[in-house]
């Protein structure tokens, strides 16, 4: 019979073998997770959702970024689910695909490693976008990216263009290639000055952009102009609570809120 002294080598070898198996399993899980994350990022990039980033956190595939609106955020999430659902269901890969890190204007989501919206679970048979929906999402993404290639500038307190014509040239190209969709040109101002003046200013600037796009061959029936004034700020442009004080210097925060946005509204 083996005494306790003779059993020690057996116990040590058994523990060592178990540790090796656990290490091999862990390494394989890491490789599978990275392959899945890479596949998710590739699907986002190919679909035109270049604003979104795929990362890993424990057993979750995390999707984050800043989307132009809620519909585009959901479409990006659906694209990932469809691309990796078979791989993600493998044991030890990802228990869930979490899109809570995608924020958009008006959402309450704060871009951070720990998002705050409900989980998006990986479930078989997740509905995918129709060709028409995918075309709309792609056109929206292209319009958004074209609008970010430079700065559209206007005369202070007025609507004539001072710069950004090359940006609008790119937007016009996309608009003409996406001719089956109507496009809203949204004008936004900072929160300085009177709200009614900002409303009218945003409307005039949106119409200036519309006229420019029409001059570049975009059908007038395809584009509409809408002013939002100061009602949809991206950031608090008076974080110190000082308000709009005469002679106060401009700031990058106020510049972020002064913008033109391009949004697909419907098929024409």
Describe what you observe in this structure.
There is one protein chain. The protein is α/β, with parallel strands linked by helices and 268 residues long. Helix content is 44%, strand content 18%. The chain has helices at 4-46, 70-88, 131-147, 165-177, 195-215, 252-257, and strands at residues 53-57, 60-66, 96-103, 120-121, 153-154, 161-163, 181-188, 223-227, 259-267. The strands form 3 sheets. A 4-stranded mixed beta sheet has the order 1-2-3-4. A 3-stranded mixed beta sheet has the order 8-7-9. Strands 5-6 form a two-stranded antiparallel ribbon. A hairpin with a 6-residue loop joins β5 and β6 (161-163). α1 (4-46) packs antiparallel against α2 (70-88) and α4 (165-177) crosses α5 (195-215). The longest helix has 43 residues, at 4-46. It starts with a helix and ends with a strand. The model is unreliable at 109-127 (pLDDT under 50).
Brief descriptors of the model:
4-stranded mixed β-sheet, 60s Ribosomal Protein L30, Chain: A, single chain, Histidine-containing Protein, Chain: A, 3-stranded mixed β-sheet, 44% helix, 268 residues
């Amino acid at each position: 019979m083996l005494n306790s002294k003779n059993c020690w080598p057996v116990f040590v070898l058994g523990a060592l073998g178990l540790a090796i198996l656990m290490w091999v399993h862990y390494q394989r899980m890491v490789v599978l997770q990275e392959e899945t994350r890479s596949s998710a990022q590739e699907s986002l990039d190919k679909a035109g959702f270049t604003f979104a980033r795929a990362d890993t956190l424990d057993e979750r595939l995390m999707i984050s970024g800043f989307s132009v609106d809620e519909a585009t955020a959901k479409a990006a999430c659906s694209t990932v689910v469809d691309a990796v659902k078979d791989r993600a269901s493998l044991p030890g890969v990802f228990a869930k695909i979490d899109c809570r890190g995608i924020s958009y204007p008006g959402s309450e989501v704060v871009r951070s490693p720990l998002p705050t919206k409900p989980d998006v679970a990986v479930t078989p048979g997740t509905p995918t976008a129709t060709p028409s929906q995918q075309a709309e999402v792609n056109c929206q993404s292209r319009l958004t990216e074209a609008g970010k290639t430079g700065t559209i500038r206007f005369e202070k307190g007025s609507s004539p263009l001072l710069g950004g014509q090359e940006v609008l040239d790119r937007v016009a190209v996309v608009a003409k290639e996406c001719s089956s969709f109507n496009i809203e040109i949204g004008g936004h101002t900072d929160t300085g000055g009177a709200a009614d003046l900002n409303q009218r200013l945003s409307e005039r600037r949106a119409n200036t952009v519309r006229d420019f796009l029409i001059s570049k061959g975009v059908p007038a029936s395809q584009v509409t102009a809408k002013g939002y004034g100061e009602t949809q700020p991206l950031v608090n442009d008076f974080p110190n609570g000082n308000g709009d004080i005469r002679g106060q210097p401009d700031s990058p925060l106020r510049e972020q809120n002064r913008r033109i946005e391009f949004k697909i509204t419907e098929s024409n």
